[in-house]
Amino acid sequence: MTDRVRERAFAKINLTLDVLNKRPDGYHELVTVMQTASLADEVYISVKRGQGIRAMCDVPGLPRDLDNLAGKAAKAFLDHVGCTDTAVDITIEKHIPDRAGLAGGSSDAAAVIRGLDGLLGTGLSDGELVSVASGVGSDVPFCLFGGTRLCRGRGEILEDAPELPDCVIAIVKPEFSVSTPYLFGRLDDTPVRVRPDTRGMLDALRAGELFKICGLLGNVFEEALPEAQRRQVEDIKSRLVGAGALGAVMSGSGSAVYGVFPNGTEPEVNVPGAEIFIVKNVKKLRQLQKNQSNWE
Ligand code: C5P
Questions:
Q1: How many A from CA of 28 to the centre of ligand 1?
Q2: Phi/psi at 285 (nearest 5 deg)?
Q3: Which three-class secondary structure state does DSSP give residue 170?
Q4: Number of domains in the chain
Q5: Which of 5, 25, 110, 205 would give a disulfide with 143, using CB separation of 3.0 to 4.6 Å?
Q6: What is the per-residue pLDDT across 105-156, written as a single tens digit (0 to 9) for each?
Q7: Is 185 among the domain residues?
Q8: Can you give the pLDDT at residue 294?
Q9: Does any ligand 1 atom lie closer than 6 A to the CB of residue 104?
């Protein structure tokens, strides 16, 4: 039996992100086209006979064990399959910046679920994997399967979307970070003036027209940012476009902003004080066994 595996945990970006309404359970109803990018953490998972879940990162200050989403995912997985005699040890080499809107923690959690399903030979169906993942966090189901997907509900209802054509993606993480619940709260008090055209984005993806896709990038969270941060995001977007990006937008609840460049280019992006990652789009990690519905 293999008792150790390395899983790559990729970052996600949002090509479009629309927030529709606040639900009675406190979450918000989303419609978003998500995309996997090649910026990735490395997640080492090992199992042995015993009990207990350990999770640690190589970056100081990040939560450990069951306080880390990766540890939570291991517990949710073992509980789901009724496994009581397995100890799990997780070590995460972080490359995805924290609190950036890139789903770093969610992707680590998804990597743990994929890894344990393989190591323990449980072979869960897609529906079961999504059910375990959505209990851990709203972005975790997408991170399990990756690629280009339309995500609805809390983010856990996944549908296939046509793949993003190959391109270069420059991700810029400014010095400031944003708390997701805080920005959802601000959005509740902000009248949204411009919403992304999700249907147009799906059509542009279907046509494979990168230029058109880049013209339709959009995120309602940008408008909900406090003024000083909104100005910084606008400045980064201008710098990305100045460096040759076909389009630029904030990812998730920020603060990372990315620009999309034609395939084969080597963009030179300069944003003082920011971390910059030049990466590529990543195709689906796994096909969905069954599409849940077709978005009208
Ligand atoms: O699901 P997750 O734990 O990643 O969500 C973090 C927080 O973001 C939630 O506690 C909630 O405040 C907010 N959220 C939301 N609606 C969503 C996803 C997240 O309000 N669809």
A1: 7
A2: -80, -30
A3: strand
A4: 2
A5: 110
A6: 999 999 999 999 999 999 999 999 999 999 999 999 999 999 999 999 999 9
A7: yes
A8: 56
A9: no
Atom of ligand 1 nearest to the CA of 28: 16
C-alpha torsion angle, residues 118, 119, 121, 124 (rounded to 10): -40
pTM: 0.95
Q: Is residue 62 pLDDT above 60, yes or no?
A: yes
Instruction: Tell me the CB-side half-sphere exposure of residue 14, using CA atoms within 13 A.
Output: 32
Please report whether residue 290 resides in a domain. no
Ligand 1 proximity of 30 Cβ (cutoff 6 Å) = yes
- The domain that holds 99 is classified in CATH as 3.30.230.10
Domain housing 115: 4-160
Q: Mean pLDDT score of the chain, rounded to an integer?
A: 95
Q: Kindly state whether residue 88 falls inside one of the protein's structural domains.
A: yes
Residues with Cβ within 8 Å of residue 166, at least 6 apart in sequence: 263, 280, 281
For residue 2, count CB atoms less than 10 angstroms from its CB and return exposed for 0-12, middle for 13-18, buried for 19 or more. Answer: exposed
Distance 98 CA to ligand 1 centre (A): 16
130 and 29 belong to one structural domain = yes
Residue 234 domain-assigned?
A: yes
Question: What is the residue whose two structure tokens read 């006979």?
Answer: 49
Is residue 133 a contact partner of residue 113, using CB atoms and an 8 Å limit? yes
191 and 238 assigned to the same domain? yes
Are the C-beta atoms of residues 130 and 158 closer than 8 Å to each other?
A: yes
